[in-house]
């Protein structure tokens, strides 16, 4: 019998049930979703997101951290929690694609669901309808080559699950794309050729992920095209963003009423309870949350650099 390498703990098969037990609790899942945009948040904020008492939240966070799904960031006397890494973020995104959507019981919940469908931060990249639109724009300009980004649930490719498109290396960055992105001030990683993508859980189409998507989102943030929404991971497109997206990529924002009504891919599931596929009357070019009451600014820690933010 072969002995394990030094420092490697011997064990049996993978214990998926241990992770499944953690995810079986709705409060812990809400905490993971709140952290899915890559921020680090204090336990008090996560308790509010999960709808539990601070003492209960501490117990949940201890279990998540103990199993390696979250990690603690200490800043002075404050402790913040964030996802333990991109693999956990991908786990949350994949589960979001196969999990049913929850019922919408209030105007506030409906507004929030609509905003998440429009644009959201998925750990380190852009997701939602805006993420899909940017991916389509790069493909239309021949800056990336590959799949048309749609999901066919009737197809099965080898070991892949029905409807699952290949994610790693599904696209290729072209020379024109490298030059075009450089012209927009996007720092394309040296030697990058294969471009990873995710199947967006609300749109059921591809959006870019990986290093290129991270660089794009960083550029949009730096140019002030996007603004975080207080309270959750939805993003708002600013006036500068509307102009910049149109001028640089030909992306019109907000989407036309026909698209908002659910015409096209992802219409059924992506509505997330927005009202039988009807366009939400709450949408405006300034963002999808004008009916949601403003919340006090909260202190967060950026995953990159440890700076204070609100």
From TrEMBL:
It comes from the Bacteria. Residues 266-310 are annotated as: Disordered. This is ArsR/SmtB family transcription factor. PANTHER family: TRANSCRIPTIONAL REGULATOR-RELATED, TRANSCRIPTIONAL REGULATORY PROTEIN. Residues 8-103 form the HTH arsR-type domain. Residues 296-310 have a biased composition (Basic residues). Residues 266-276 have a biased composition (Gly residues).
